[in-house]
Amino acid sequence: MCTTRDVDIFFTHMNNARYLRALDFSRIHFYDRTGLYEKLAAVKGAALMGASTIRYRRPLDIFSLYKIETKMLCWDEKTVFLEHKFITLKDNFVRAIVLSRTHIVGLDLPTAMADVPEANNMKTFPEEVVQWQQCLETASARLRKKD
After folding, report:
1. Tens-place pLDDT, residues 47-86
2. How far apart are CA 46 and CA 128, in angstroms?
3. Does 33 map to a domain?
4. How do the residues of the chain divide into helix, strand and coil, expressed in percent and rounded to 5?
5. What proportion of the chain, given as a percentage, has pLDDT over 70?
6. Any idea what the Cα angle at residue 87 is, between residues 83 and 91, rounded to 5°?
7. CATH code assigned at 54
């Protein structure tokens, strides 16, 4: 539920920063549900958020009940790409959608993914992720030039 602790200064809808906070919980739940959290903990590895982008479609109003649906879109040797949808329960409308890129450190990801049934057919990157990756690489290259 979007509570008074989640809203903007006008007390009408969820503050932008609270979406990202809720996203952290959703990612942790995803890694726990798929068994990746246990595998990371066993080798003292880490899942580091590398990037995220969010598209707000409609406000998530105060006191609205919502759910976050998280699904894996694709993965490679070191990275997992997730999609998160913030959906209001009253109308099943996607209020915001997030793409996130998480770097996996200290864990052989292809071996770990062998036990995750939903990961078997996800080596092909959706066009949306390919273009997003290109955008991130362009921004990183520009920053490297300044350093």
Report:
1. 999 999 999 999 999 999 999 999 999 999 999 999 999 9
2. 26
3. yes
4. 35, 30, 30
5. 99
6. 150
7. 3.10.129.10
Residue recorded with tokens 């939903």: 118
CB 136, CB 51: distance < 8 Å: yes
Give the HSE-up count for residue 20: Cα atoms under 13 Å, Cβ half-sphere: 9
In a domain, 96, yes or no: yes
How would DSSP label each residue in 67-115? EEEEEEEEE-SSEEEEEEEEEETTT--EEEEEEEEEEEESS-HHHHHTT
- Structural domain of 136: 16-146
> The tokens of 81 are what?
């790409």
Q: What's the whole-model pTM score?
A: 0.89
Terminal CA-to-CA distance of the chain, rounded, Å? 43
Q: What's the total number of domains in the chain?
A: 1
| Residues 62 and 4: beta-carbon distance below 8 Å | yes
Give the separation between CA 56 and CA 71, rounded to whole angstroms. 18
| Residues ≥6 apart with Cβ < 8 Å to 125 | 73, 74, 81, 133
Q: 41 in a domain, yes or no?
A: yes
Q: Which amino acid is at 33?
A: R
Round the average pLDDT of the chain to a whole number and report it: 91
